Amino acid sequence: MVIYFHNPVRKIALILAFLFVVYSYWSYFNSSQRIQGRLAQLILLIDPGHGGVDGGTQDQFGNLEKDINLQIALKVREQLVASGLKIIMTRENDTDLAPFRSGQRGRHRRDLLSRIEKARFNNCLFLISIHCDSSVARERRGAVAFYNYRSDESKQLALLLQDELNKVQQAPAKAAPGKYLIIRQSGVNSVLLEVGFLSNPEEAKLLQDPDYQQQLAAAIAKGILKYCQKYVPAKPSDCG
Ligand SMILES: [Zn+2]
């Protein structure tokens, strides 16, 4: 088809419209590449709580928290890697980070400190620790994001994570300040996620369902990505 332009004004308008469309496409691809590049410079540490000799809490059938934490954490990693983030893990299998040594006390504390040290050493943007909760009140359920009240970054991420988790779970919960050792360390921004209660039989079953785990993992990944889009500056040199 040949289009003849008898009207020069119309011709110019069409050329300008064409150039505008080309420019829009170019700037869209350019900005999405910039975001990809920015994400690739960030390192996150995902921490499946417990492991090895430390099983964590358990459900009524003896299914251990450490296994569920790991299954969810690996799914979170998969999602985030697909989005271009650099992810390291405190553990990728059933192990702990401070083996039992006869005569040496404080294994649990040494284990937690070596997880934190891993985040420090790798200069991670965040340490995200994944756990399951337990309560004598069997009706208690729901995922909660705990933050370090002294860290604005920790709180902002926890709020975004909670928003996403609330879209997955039955009843919404509120992000809360936590007293856990792993989120109270200076120099490391951490959030601890209690993804549900193993003491609640119904939620314990859900937490072991791969589909539900996937939904939780997607929510966690989405919260992290939202934080990056909102708060992480375009140039790494702008990081505080
Ligand atoms: Zn735990």
List the helices and strands and how they pair.
Elements: H1 8-40, E1 43-48, H2 65-82, E2 86-89, H3 107-121, E3 126-133, E4 144-147, H4 152-168, E5 176-177, E6 190-197, H5 201-207, H6 210-231
Parallel strand pairs: 1-2, 1-3, 3-6, 4-5
Antiparallel strand pairs: 4-6
Helix pairs in contact: 2-6, 4-6
Zinc ion is lined by residues 49-50, 56, 65, 131.
Tell me the total number of β-strands.
6
Name of the CATH homologous superfamily of the largest domain: Zn-dependent exopeptidases
How much of the residues is beta strand, in percent?
A: 5-15%
Q: Based on helices, strands and strand pairing, what is the structural class?
A: alpha/beta
Reported CATH architecture of the largest domain: 3-Layer(aba) Sandwich
Stated plainly, the CATH topology of the largest domain is called Aminopeptidase
Assign a percent range to the helix content. 40-55%
Kindly report the average pLDDT value: 89
Oligomer: single chain
What is the overall shape? elongated
Task: Label this structure with key terms.
240 residues, alpha/beta, Aminopeptidase, 2 domains, six-stranded mixed sheet, 6 helices, 6 strands, disordered C terminus, binds zinc ion
What does this structure look like?
This protein is α/β, with parallel strands linked by helices and about 240 residues long. Helices cover about 45% and strands about 15% of the residues. It has a 6-stranded mixed beta sheet, with helices on both faces. Strand 1 (about 45-50), helix 2 (about 65-80) and strand 2 form a beta-alpha-beta unit. The termini are far apart. The model is unreliable at about 235-240 (pLDDT under 50). Zinc ion binds next to loops.
